[in-house]
Amino acid sequence: MDVVPALEQPLKKVLGPATAKVMAEHLGLQTVGDLLHHYPRRYEERGRLTHLADLPMDEHVTVVAQVADARLHTFASAKAPRGKGQRLEVTITDGSGRLQLVFFGAGVHKPHKELLPGTRAMFAGKVSVFNRRLQLAHPAYELLRGDTEETVETWAGALIPIYPATAKMESWKIGKALQTVLPSAQEALDPLPDSLRAGRGLVPLPEALLKIHRPHTKADIEDARARLKWDEAFVLQTALARRRHTDAQLPAVARRPQPDGLLTAFDARLPFTLTEGQRKVSEEIFADLATEHPMHRLLQGEVGSGKTLVALRAMLAVVDAGGQAAMLAPTEVLAQQHHRSVTEMMGELAEGGMLGGADDATKVVLLTGSMGAAARRQALLDLATGEAGIVIGTHALIEDKVQFHDLGLVVVDEQHRFGVEQRDALRGKGKQPPHLLVMTATPIPRTVAMTVFGDLETSVLDQLPAGRSPIASHVVPAADKPHFLARAWERVREEVASGHQAYVVCPRIGDEEDAPKGAAKKKSPEDEAEKRPPLAVLDIAGQLAEGPLRGLRVEVLHGRMQPDDKDAVMRRFAAGEVDVLVATTVIEVGVNVPNATAMVIMDADRFGVSQLHQLRGRVGRGSAPGLCLLVTEMPEASAARQRLNAVASTLDGFELSRIDLEQRREGDVLGQAQSGTRSSLRMLAVIDDEEIIAEAREEATRIVAADPDLTDLAALRTALDALLDEEREQYLEKG
After folding, report:
1. What number of other Cβ atoms are within 10 A of residue 669's Cβ?
2. Dihedral (C-alpha) 114, 120, 124, 128: value to the nearest 10 degrees?
3. β-strand 324-328 against 388-393: which pairing, if any?
4. How far apart (Å, rounded) are the C-alpha atoms in residues 268 and 117?
5. Average pLDDT, stretch 87-108?
6. Strands 133-137 and 98-104
7. 712 by DSSP, 3-state: which?
8. Contact 135, 128 (CB under 8 A)
9. Dist. CA 326–CA 438, nearest whole Å
10. With contact defined as beta carbons under 8 Å apart, do 48 and 31 qualify?
């Protein structure tokens, strides 16, 4: 019988079924190795106490503090009408602040005996507010007497590790479980090659695991963290380096534009010159297209930096070289918008085979799920025969029925909205792998690009085209200052009076199909505090049309309208026949109406930082300055307000993406965030550890170039297998 390696032992065998079940269900920990990699969030020093003044609302916290006083009160209630109800109030202190603990009913007896003034203990519970004071109701606690064998054994050393915990599994219980499995750390396989570890002065992995869980000094913690961060960065970068290496071996058709072909004719038509950035990025793309290996490039650009134009020139270069190009958009509104702007930019060059079309023209077709049968049949025919050089569409492009004559380039717009499988399916439509260009308007900090899109080369467009106007952004605190909201609607009227148009954005549609069943349960603390559903397009549009915007032409746009109706509304808005468009985030990307100068975002706190930045990019696209008003009812001190203040204070998308990431943390960079499993990054912080990631990428690239199969690095192969379980392997395969 095979012996299971120590770190692969199921926790059930080591800790017993009850504890193992809670750890699996609430913390996602299955094996001894999983538990050893569940690192402390921070450490408490025995002689120092937690800052009670800094406790976060509605979170499970563990604090080390001293009992200042304890009082038992009796009261009358429905359950104890004769005044026999009991409530124990215990005040704990740490010198920086005080916190109240409350226990009720039968739960008062044990703490009443044990929590005497002067007692030190660890307390764990959920922070709530009662009578404007922070409190923990019925917290679990562990006395720190320092004299019983077990407590001293479990909390050896002056530093007490505080673990990410849940209501069902307190930090000290995790600590005790770790005490049991810690000897297995000696058998941890070290994925770092010896030369790399020695060269960087990193401690061996077993030592790092011991020091992270049972540090004697702060230097122990630093040593362990430095080592464990390197592991995460290096194993992940090795996976990406192998992916790049494999891609570089694939064959592709080189696509070089003709000297006087479609691209030259298109450039001659442009009424403006390209920005320096657009020229530089285009050169990088054309160089990739001219090679006999598939391009894998990420084009990230600020909102409104002209990415679509760069992508269109790449598509025209491929059509020039006898191939076809497909552009994949996340929504029908966006696909139609792209189709409209591409055909407008190309003019008679998009009228291949039609009367009045230019000699070297091609056909540009639209393919979406809601097209009529005849139009769809014609589009499919044009693609199969090669009559259409460019196709723009939604997921409909991926269906089996869609056949290409010779697919040479796939452009994916707004990458984060597309599953990797979908990109892969479209790439599979080429006779040989087509070139791939991924566009995103959400600026991504360099380290995140290296980590999340590590298999793609990156181009950045950070220059705005000439003639773009600045956008002024302001937070409108509707609850504190209702007259500010009244002024916001006056500003919209002023913009319309001067011949411009406006958007009003709401988080919800309002026809009550919005909320998925069960969604009501998961509420953030701020939602709880608000107790009202987010504002809805259908409600707000009616209120505005009858109230502050009476007399203006107000229309609505949202995702559940019929595609033809959506397109008709967008056309009317683009033509200036609508003054105010009340919409959901369907307008977030790609919608281009230069005459729209103002945007009011209702319940702005319900949107993420990147999303607000995207939305704001819909105004200020012409020569008149843009205005974006972020309406919120959140109180001044809340995290939500700080987030909105950050958005209002800068137009730099890269700066905002850093803020966004710091607030959300990284999620799982291998795309597992969507499926809800735990992050593969436990120690590495993508923003803070920029140097480690960059160095790990260099080391990984060097090692993979020398030994693509890692034949001499068995422990590294094992670590890769653990990181790349099948699901993740497929994710990278399809990246």
Report:
1. 21
2. 90
3. parallel
4. 84
5. 84
6. parallel
7. coil
8. yes
9. 12
10. no
362 versus 146: the higher-pLDDT residue is 362
The strand pairing partners of 90, in sequence order, are: 70, 101
Greatest CA separation found in the chain? 97
Residue 518 phi, psi (nearest 5): 90, -10
Position 1 confidence tier, pLDDT thresholds 50, 70, 90: very low
Q: How many Å apart are CA 65 and CA 369, to the nearest integer?
A: 61
Q: What is the DSSP letter of 131?
A: T
Angstrom distance (rounded) from CA 305 to CA 125: 48
Question: pLDDT tens for residues 115-156?
Answer: 989 888 888 777 887 777 778 888 888 887 655 444 544 444
Residue 327: φ, ψ to 5°: -115, 125
Tokens of 381: 């025919």
Q: pLDDT at position 62, please? A: 74
pLDDT at position 488 is 92
Q: Is 228 exposed, middle or buried (0-12, 13-18, 19+ CB in 10 A)?
A: buried
Among 426, 432, 367, 357, which residue's Cα sits nearest to residue 393? 367
Average pLDDT over residues 222-233: 92
CA atoms within 13 Å, Cβ hemisphere of 122: 23
pLDDT value at residue 31: 87
Quick one: three-class SS letters along 24-73? HHHHCCCEHHHHHCCCCCEEEECCCCCCHHHCCCCCEEEEEEEEEEEEEE
pLDDT confidence of residue 30: 86
Decide: 694 and 445 in contact? Cβ < 8 Å.
no
555 C-beta neighbours (distance < 10 Å), count: 18
The band of 663, judged by pLDDT with boundaries at 50, 70 and 90, is low
DSSP one-letter string for 616-682: HTTSS-SSSPEEEEEEE-S-TTSHHHHHHHHHHH---HHHHHHHHHHHH----TTTGGGGTPPPS-S
pLDDT score at 247: 79
Quick one: tokens of 194?
A: 């010896």
Give the number of other Cβ atoms within 10 Å of residue 678's Cβ.
15
Two tokens, residue 711 = 């034949």
Q: Position 361: which residue type?
A: A
> Could you give the C-alpha distances from 436 to 8, 183, 324, 328, in angstroms and in order?
39, 48, 12, 11
Of the candidates 589, 602, 651, the one whose C-alpha atom is nearest the C-alpha of residue 625 is: 651
Q: What six digits make up the tokens of 496?
A: 């319309």
Q: What is the pLDDT of residues 415-466, one digit of tens each?
A: 555 555 666 676 777 778 889 898 887 767 766 777 666 767 888 887 766 6
In which region does residue 628 sit, left (phi positive, over 0), alpha (psi from -120 to 50) or beta (all else)?
beta
Q: Express as a percent the part of the chain with pLDDT over 90.
A: 22
The DSSP element (H or E) to which 493 belongs, if any, is: helix 482-497
587 pLDDT higher than 70: yes
Closest CA to 253 of 327, 326, 314, 321: 321
445 neighbors 661 (Cβ within 8 angstroms): yes
- Radius of gyration over every alpha carbon of the chain, rounded to an integer in angstroms: 30
pLDDT for the residue numbered 264: 92
